[in-house]
Amino acid sequence: MHELSLCQSLIEIIEDNARTNDISKVRSVTLEIGLLGHVEPESMLFCFDALSRGTIAEGARLVIERMPGAGWCPDCEKTVALAERHGACPGCGSYRVRMTSGDELRVRDMEVE
Predict the structure, then answer these.
(1) Angle, helices 3-21/41-51, rounded to nearest 10 degrees
(2) How confident is the model at residue 6 (pLDDT cuts 50, 70, 90)?
(3) pTM for this entry
(4) Tens digit of pLDDT for each residue in 45-81?
(5) Could you say which of 3.30.2320.50, 3.40.50.720, 3.30.930.10, 3.20.20.150 is the CATH number of the domain covering 3-68+102-112?
(6) What is the pLDDT of residue 1?
(7) What are the domain boundaries of the chain?
């Protein structure tokens, strides 16, 4: 379960940000997670709850926003929606599509005191 290590890194980011910005409490954290990134939101929620105990983020709400997959099809010369990694272009069927989004994992914002 790589979500455990992802949440450990997330807690480190939160604590580093708190020290740098004199934050006393984190109320919520919003994560953007790509649909094609192989990250399970339920596992992230579980791991965040467990790993945030005893930290500045204890009791904080983790909000997960799923980001759609997209890619550039050189044959169609346009951006297309992707439902899977290495999937075919929904327009022409080409497998030369280069994924441009959908594997993100980033902190979008935090609500703090």
Answers:
(1) 50
(2) very high
(3) 0.86
(4) 999 999 999 999 999 999 999 999 999 999 999 999 9
(5) 3.30.2320.50
(6) 59
(7) 3-68+102-112
